[in-house]
Amino acid sequence: MLLEKEDLIALNRTGENLKSVLRHIVAKFPHSAQTITGMSHWLEFNRSNCQRILNGVQKSKNGQQVLCFLPGIAGLQEFLLQASKKPLETQLILEASKAIEVFDSQIKKYARSHAELKRILSNNSVKNNQYNSSLTAVEKREQHYLASKQLIGSSVDILFSCYIIKENDENKEFLQEVAMISKRGIQRSKASPPFVQFYTHPHPEGFTSPENISKDSRLDTSQFHIGVIDELSSNGVLQAYSSYSTSNSGIVFNDIEGNECAPFDATFLFSNPDELANPLVHQSQCSSTSVSIKNPTKKLLTLVFLEKKIDRCSTVNVGCYSGNQKVEEGKLRADDMWTERLPEFPELNVLHPDSPRARINDELQIGEMSDYLFTYSNFNKDDFVCYLLEVDYPIWSSTYRVYFEHG
User: Fold this and answer.
1) Which end of the chain offers a freer environment for a tag, N or C, measured as fewer CB atoms within 10 Å?
2) Cα-Cα end-to-end distance for the chain
3) Predicted confidence (pLDDT) per residue in 102-111, tens digit
4) Burial (CB count within 10 angstroms: exposed 0-12, middle 13-18, buried 19+), residue 170
């Protein structure tokens, strides 16, 4: 049997749901019962099924893998029965029971058994649905872009973001995040909302306006910074700064004087020394960095430079989520956000920092721009692993999130 793309998406979502509810149950077990042998002894439960559950919770990279790793329905139901005999929250058991019911109904819908469903998922073949294949995913996103651009009267040609994430040398409790957000070819009509650059860090004390960042500026790692990069922005951007919007944590800009409604570029720099918990010293479950598509955008390019010693203890993945739902740093994993994930599967590539794709993309000198950020930060690129996210016509009003699950 071949599955349609929509069926695979539904099954993937079921797997993410199961992973989330089962992981929350296992997290309530004594630490000694969070291993195969310890769980089997504590629950008086089949050792092989304990291994399958832990594989589904700990080793799966997506929802389809979860469904393949987990035991069948009988094994899952017996696991819940044994877990319900322990002093666990009833709500956790009920949520897991509902997720298993959905899994059971999907097995019956798509296959004759769990084993057959695993074979189908491993095959990875998708039925050619003539109706749904009339437009490719990129073509659908392009239509969405064109309609959204006309609707709100503004757009961005290229949104380039670059993140450097490393251990904070001055405070090992946190990671140091330095970011560049560059919007190229910003177009606005007279009727469009004002141009706003958003950020999530609390408003810095004594803030009056963004800093003027130039090639001679250098990072103070102890402070939160937000600034406009002079060499990578159109003339007049910093002078057009209007106000800080407390309601949505954004800096607001007027039209550039003498350049109203003409396309312009704006590049921002952020430094966050105390938002991301350091997984090397904390029991942090998930760190993430994200780009919210606040304006209809032709192309999204994101480079994430993750310090190698953090990369070695992390599983890195990417997802597209509705709105701007925030992952609660250090507490939530990506599968906790399974209800927000959109049926959009962007690709994340590992690159050498000096590879052609990390230097020039869509005629944009992203290598020179990332070099600028490393010079400002005084960090060495050789100490980092480079990830690239590239999306044509990213979905307006969504968030593309690169997240790192630890442990």
Assistant:
1) C
2) 36
3) 999 999 999 9
4) exposed
Residues 6 or more apart in contact with residue 379 via CB below 8 angstroms: 164, 166, 178
Radius of gyration over alpha carbons of the chain, in Å?
23
pLDDT, averaged across the chain:
88
Cα gap 33→50, rounded to integer Å: 10
Residues β-bridged to residue 290: 401
The amino acid sitting at 20 is: S
User: What pTM did the predictor assign?
Assistant: 0.76
pLDDT tens per residue, range 29-75: 999 999 999 999 999 999 999 999 999 998 888 889 999 999 999 99
Question: Do 2 and 126 touch, CB atoms closer than 8 A?
Answer: yes
Closest by Cα among 342, 402, 395, 404 to 159:
395
pLDDT tens, residue by residue, 116-131: 999 998 876 555 544 4
Predicted pLDDT at 18: 94
